[in-house]
Design goal:
Distance between the termini: 25 Å
Radius of gyration: 25 Å
Number of strands: 12
Number of helices: 13
Shape: elongated
Structural class: alpha/beta
């Protein structure tokens, strides 16, 4: 991190407190800051002047100039400048890469996507592909690398606090996270690498079904289960970044594996076709089993096809088992089914709610569907990049005090 000299502790405390308020505020005055943060008027004015000198705030026309004040001395008005820098969120999935360039409040300016062949993947190819995708997004936004303040990459692998992934027996985690923490170090002063399900939890907490919740699980539930776990308002990571890894479901009765809802829907449809149990008027009977996918099943279920509804409901008990495990181990109050499959997961969730065991002792978690769609990891990566930029802004050279002000 390209840092400046740390400011004295009391002054830093005041700067952090005021910046925390103004980052999300609309136009404000020193009086607004005093009321929100609890500092004295002289401190509020001094801190606002410093944040303006650092380039994080702009001073706006005063209240009289905009026709909102007529008597006495007009109050100075300020606003946070979200265009003072950029953040970048990268979803580095197994078969795709998505990079989003956003301002300091997370408003997307441009996005670039790239499909990759996981069978021809290698750490070096993945690094180059990720960098090319970010460069393409910057080009679309007509912005430069030098403007990036924070960058976050989400990967389908455990990620330790260092930003690196542990060794996997077949090298998969190393391919998914080829030390992005190092390869992007020259691109941004602060870089964060996270597990994709952890970023789904960031997205749900910031924009989605877990806003206001401290205890929840964001369950990426498409091809394989992956869980981002929040307990007491803190996202769990673990010693090696493995909190939320779901290989343990191999040993849970009624769940049996870490495979997600999509392959379970396909398997249930195949079983229904093979057994002849589908209603005669079900459109599933007319679909080639070799081309059948979960989206087709769930789209038909949403349209009221009785056979597809039965197939979707058959998957519910496995989801109930997953929710029960998280409810029992972590005492979460909700499980958010996230990712692209969430849009059609209503019948599965309804069946899961009905199948939740009554023997949990603790209140069973609510199972709800995410509204954030297939881009949830990208959304979480941008939100995490904003969090990181916000945390470190005062220590970055990009927002250092001008030399004459620093000497004073």
């Amino acid at each position: 991190m390209d840092a400046i000299t740390t400011t004295p502790s009391l002054r830093r405390h005041n700067l952090d407190a005021v910046l925390g308020y103004v980052w999300d505020a609309d136009a404000f005055t020193a009086s607004d800051v005093i009321q929100a943060v609890g500092v004295t008027r002289s401190t509020a004015i001094d801190v606002l002047d410093e944040l303006t000198a650092r380039g994080l705030l702009t001073e706006m026309p005063n209240a009289r100039a905009v026709g909102e004040y007529s008597k006495g001395r007009p109050a100075r008005r300020f606003a946070f400048d979200p265009g003072a820098g950029l953040v970048v969120g990268v979803d580095a999935g197994r078969g795709h890469l998505t990079a989003t360039v956003a301002d300091l409040r997370g408003r997307a300016l441009a996005t670039s996507r790239l499909t990759v062949d996981p069978e021809l993947d290698s750490p070096e190819r993945r690094r180059r592909a990720a960098e090319a995708t970010v460069d393409a997004a910057l080009t679309r936004a007509r912005r430069a690398r030098t403007e990036i303040i924070g960058l976050c990459v989400g990967v389908p692998a455990p990620v330790a606090r260092s930003g690196r992934s542990p060794v996997h027996h077949d090298g998969f985690w190393a391919r998914m996270n080829p030390d992005f923490i190092d390869s992007f170090a020259a691109w941004a002063p602060v870089v964060r690498v996270e597990n994709d399900a952890t970023l789904a939890a960031v997205a749900e907490r910031t924009h989605g079904a877990a806003v206001g919740s401290d205890d929840f699980v964001a369950l990426l539930a498409g091809e394989r289960f992956g869980a981002g776990i929040s307990v007491d308002g803190r996202l769990l990571r673990g010693a090696h970044g493995g909190a939320g890894e779901t290989v343990a479901f191999d040993r849970v009765d009624g769940v049996g594996s870490a495979w997600g809802l999509a392959p379970r829907c396909v398997d249930a449809a195949h079983e229904a076709l093979a057994s002849g149990s589908l209603p005669l008027d079900s459109a599933l009977r007319d679909i080639d089993p070799d081309t059948l996918d979960a989206k087709t099943v769930l789209d038909l279920a949403a349209a009221g096809d009785a056979g597809a509804l039965g197939v979707a409901r058959a998957v519910g008990p496995a989801l109930a088992g997953v929710a029960a495990v998280f409810g029992s181990l972590f005492d979460v109050e909700r499980v958010v089914v996230s990712g692209a499959i969430a849009a059609g997961a209503g019948p599965i969730i309804d069946a899961a709610i009905g199948a939740l065991p009554a023997s949990l002792h603790l209140p069973a978690p609510r199972i709800v569907a995410s509204t954030l769609g297939a881009d949830i990891v990208s959304i979480g990566a941008v939100a995490a990049a904003v969090e990181t930029a916000r945390t470190h802004a005062l220590d970055l050279a990009a927002f250092a005090l001008p030399a004459d002000r620093a000497r004073a």
